Amino acid sequence: MSGNDTMDEDSLNSLPHGAQLAWGLVKPSTRGPKGELSVGKIVDAAVGIADREGLSALSMNRVASSLGFTTMSLYRYIKSKDDLLMLMTEAVCDIQIPEESEGKGWRDQLREYVETCIRLMRAHPWFTDVPIMGVPITPNNLKMVDWPLRILRDLPLSEYEKMSTVLLVSGYSRFYAIMMRDMDRAIEAGGNPESFSGLMYGEALRQLVTPERYPALYPIVAAGVYTEDDGNKSEAQNDFDFGLERILDGIELHLSRARS
To answer: Which terms are listed as keywords in the entry (predicted)?
Structure first.
């Protein structure tokens, strides 16, 4: 927090304790054996548990036990589970942000942002289980907001439009990451990968989905598109790409109107 000698203490104190820790605004506890416990060690242990077993397995008691300490010992460093969750998301968002590139257009750069977000959330499947409690307010989370805003910086958009565009593309990345996470979990639990494409149900659905009962769905099923057995699945038909490209097309159309 350099470069600002007039920071308002009351405003900074309004931040949750987890955010204050993330910004280095409060000194962590020094009670207990020196070096044996720290905010970083607690957060690392919590991320490890959540990565392996999911967010439902996480508790302050579980983290304390994994570190060989009492639960009360943790509360001397991190005041609540909500603060711990905030610090966990902050920790996994500590990634290398790409340097600015003049060789890439804004579409390619936004695609890179979306794909990076999805990889992050799939690597930490619990991430999207953490309730959204408000706007990002911790350093690394704010870097994940600053990155796409940097991409949009020189486009003819108002500040509101830039922020709304970031919300749009980050929302798409979150939606797709949740879907992929659920598929990953189902397959890990022994599910059949083909159930997601519907290939194994194609013939049955063609008999059950009649034009009388499902007039709009019927031609999709009959063509084999619903269950991906139309024989024409190609890169151009990739669902993720199709959705993202239409979002980017919409942004580009908005930009063309702003320029005219």
So the answer is: DNA-binding, Transcription, Transcription regulation
φ, ψ dihedrals at 58, nearest 5°: -90, 130
pLDDT tens, 97-133? 998 877 889 999 999 999 999 999 999 999 999 999 8
Tens of pLDDT, residues 16-49: 999 999 999 987 666 655 568 999 999 999 999 9
> CA–CA separation, 53 vs 64, rounded Å?
16
Domain boundary among 92, 126, 153: 92
- Examine residue 212 and state whether it is found in any structural domain, yes or no: no
Domain co-membership, 67 together with 122: no
- Rounded CA-CA distance 136/93 in Å is 11
Say what the pTM is. Answer: 0.88
Residue 45 Cα distances to 33, 87, 92, 220, angstroms: 18, 12, 12, 48
Angle (CA) 92 177 253, round 5°? 110
Residue 133 is predicted with a pLDDT of 87
> CATH number for the domain including 163?
1.10.357.10
Q: What are phi and psi of 139, to 5 degrees?
A: -55, -55
SS3 37: coil
Q: How many domains does the chain have?
A: 2
